[in-house]
Amino acid sequence: MIGTSEQSAAGASQALWSSTIAFTVCFAVWTIFSIIGIGVKDQLGLTETEFGLLVGTPILTGSLSRVLLGVWSDQLGGRRVFAIVMVLAGIATFLTSYADTYTELLIAALGVGIAGGAFSVGVTYVSKFYPKEKQGLALGIFGAGNVGSAVTKFLAPFVMVAMGWQAVAQVWAAAIIIAAVLFLLFTKEDPDQLERAKSGRKGVPMRDQLAVLRNVQVWRFALYYFFVFGAFVALALWLPRYLMGVYHLDVKTAGMLAAFYSVPASLFRIYGGKLSDRYGARSVLYVTFGISVFCTFMLSYPPTTYIIEGVRGPITFRTEMGLIPFLVAIFVLGFFMSLGKAAVFKHIPVYYPNHVGAVGGLVGMIGGLGGFVLPLAFGALNDLTGVWTSCFVLLFVLVSIALTWMHFAVRQMERAAMRRGEAGQVPELPEMQGFGEPGITAPPRRAGPIADWRPEDEDFWKRGGRAVARRNLWISTYCLMLSFALWMVWSVVVARLPAIGFDFTTDQLFWLAALPGLSGATLRIFYAFLVPIFGGRLWTTLSTASLLIPAFGIGYAVQSPETPYLIFIVLALLCGLGGGNFASSMANISFFFPKAEKGNALALNAGLGNLGVSLMQFLVPVVVTMTLFGALGGQSQVAADGTQLWMQNAGFVWIPLIILGSVAAWFGMNDILSAKSSFADQAAIFGRLHTWLMCWLYTGTFGTFIGMSAGFPLLAKLVFPEVNALKYAFIGPLIGALSRAATGWVADKYGGARVSFCVFIVQIAAIVGMISFLDVRSFPGFFAMVLLLFLASGVGNASTFQMVPGIMRREIDRTEPNLPEQQRRAQAERESAAVIGFTSAIAAYGAFYIPKAYGSSIQLTGAADAALWGFLLFYISCAALTWLAYSGPHGVLYALERKPAVPSASTVPA
């Protein structure tokens, strides 16, 4: 059959581009009431609900007609059906200009709606010219005819203002009739129709065509299109009215700005088809639904005025999304919805090549019904609630249901496939499993879980395992770097707040610097166990995307000194989302590499990820001095010395980088199915003494690194006010991160326990030096000791993690001697990953207790010496514990680290 061959049929290009142009004109006619309806509303005094019904009526006709038109296209040929649809729509549109009453307009709108049915006709017609390898892109190009909505939004207001709404109907009617004639002149019948005409056989009867619709999975498949297309149409119709009501724009401006949404939501459908061909439609749908959940949540929040009863009286502040942020959010939403539209229709001609009209018609009908039902619901919600943003609340609920339903369906299909030993054959849309036509095989996914992962197999590793592992490592490292940057951003922001008018006490500022550490450490406890439950790819995507919440929040909060301290506390706690990511990132990467390379991989992931702190402390002081995003970023603040600052850039600068990281994680990372396990399987580590001992030691290394990163900028500013310490703040975290990434081999060669003992001795010396130079008021000496502390902590971060797999292997051998060797090794690796994640969670509390200790010490004694003496005692305890439990003559690792040729099995963490 030509539709599934490797080459496109003759005349494919002419059919594609002619159909796309014709569909663009049809879509422009189909959405004409979104503009002329405004004129009718003013003329007849319609309510919001009546206006919504009028705007949605053409969508109803176009939707309901799609199934029959699709079937007729299969039977009679798409070319002639397409032309008939355009002619009938043109006649109905012309007659609309003579309607005088609301009832007559509703009847006319029913006739105009047939233009929307052209979609299922075009999908059937175009798909028959292309092989399945190219159908995603071809149907994406055809579907870009949605841009006809933008054409109407842009041109119709000018015609209506100049000549009246009746003239718009007449001009648009003439355009679609001309388009029908040109379409017939430049196209020919599709290959299936030509073959049937040559052989004399008839088309498939309608009953047989519609039989495929009995599959409930097809209907669930259509639910996705209800959002990506139905919500698009609804917003395309509703936006002019929304912009006029909320932002008080005139009809011409509202129409042009509505086109700002419609254009990307249409044209990028082409790119969605290309992505679906390359990466798989399911991956595209996951990203579409995930981003849409975030965008609709942001858009659904209404303008709100808060009144907080403070100590010194009521505190009032207001949150409201301005026009420019609204347009940006709508643009992003439209872009990802366009990708989703192409992803949904990618599979119809692949799974149902003989029933494209029926299945495509049903899916298109459900989507089109969304364009009818949702505008009505928008109007009704406005009438019932009186809140403009209620329409986005409805969309938020709708897309959340779609995402949740799809995800659980995917997981169920993957589990069932694993039980059958067919994990690699799960189709990109699991709803379609087993429901294709006879003889049609589902194409394997190019992205997704990996069922067969054997990094210790040298041949497997060289043939492709190493490349996959390294790709996951570098994406994970990038995302982790962003996580650290957002986690520690308060360490710089709080030092600037007093200068731009925020009247916070010293203790309040130290609390803001410490709270991200508290929440981040707490989240790590949970994050440490989530990768084996959800999968590293999905969890990395979601956890990286969650950083958008504090990034946006900081950008808005710092713009007004009237923002209550409570809001800053909440945002500081939300920055802990970045801190939690370390535990899941390290646990995930540990599964990808063989033991011989695992230590270096984890050192790179953690060390370069830690660079996010240094990157932030270098970048933020620079970007807050410039208008990085122009009017989009908001107004500047005037500091006490008269300089202009854009403190919101401390949050906004990360937003595009976070979006890039989330997309890269979803499209570039993998899940290792053999690493999946429940929380109960991992919980055995809580009963092992060494888990808690390693928590203490890792707090001495990583807790120092992250705590000093959070506390040093503000401490230096308070203790040495004559020095601009922010210029140098990034150097310490930079040294700590690089020393961790570069010294993993030291622990491999000499033993993690021995190196860790030396690290704690150096840290003791560094703290003594800090106390001495602080007493003599020498910033150069004090700063040098701080850098020595960072250097030692970086080395210790790698060496303490290097100890874990050796400890756990000996512990499993001791407690489970009856298990086979292979099972003991697998259990040791699983528990090592869990211990690494859990110890990183406990150690992250250093980001809380070190800044808080500095703040409390200064508040109670007027100096930081008391906190430093406390740290000194802690490091002494770490050195003693390391010697007694691990590196000394009676330590667990004493004999192992002194073997002459340590095999790769004792390398760094698992």
Automatic annotation (TrEMBL):
It is a multi-pass membrane protein. PANTHER family: HIGH-AFFINITY NITRATE TRANSPORTER 2.3. The chain crosses the membrane at residues 21-39, 51-69, 81-99, 105-126, 167-186, 221-239, 251-271, 283-301, 321-344, 356-381, 387-410, 473-497, 509-531, 538-559, 565-587, 608-632, 652-673, 693-716, 728-747, 754-774, 780-801, 833-854, 866-886. Belongs to the major facilitator superfamily. Nitrate/nitrite porter (TC 2.A.1.8) family. Signal peptide: none annotated. Residues 1-414 form the Major facilitator superfamily (MFS) profile domain. Keywords: Membrane, Nitrate assimilation, Transmembrane, Transmembrane helix, Transport. NCBIfam families: 2A0108. It is found in: Membrane. PROSITE patterns: MFS. It comes from Sphingomonas hankyongi. This is MFS transporter.
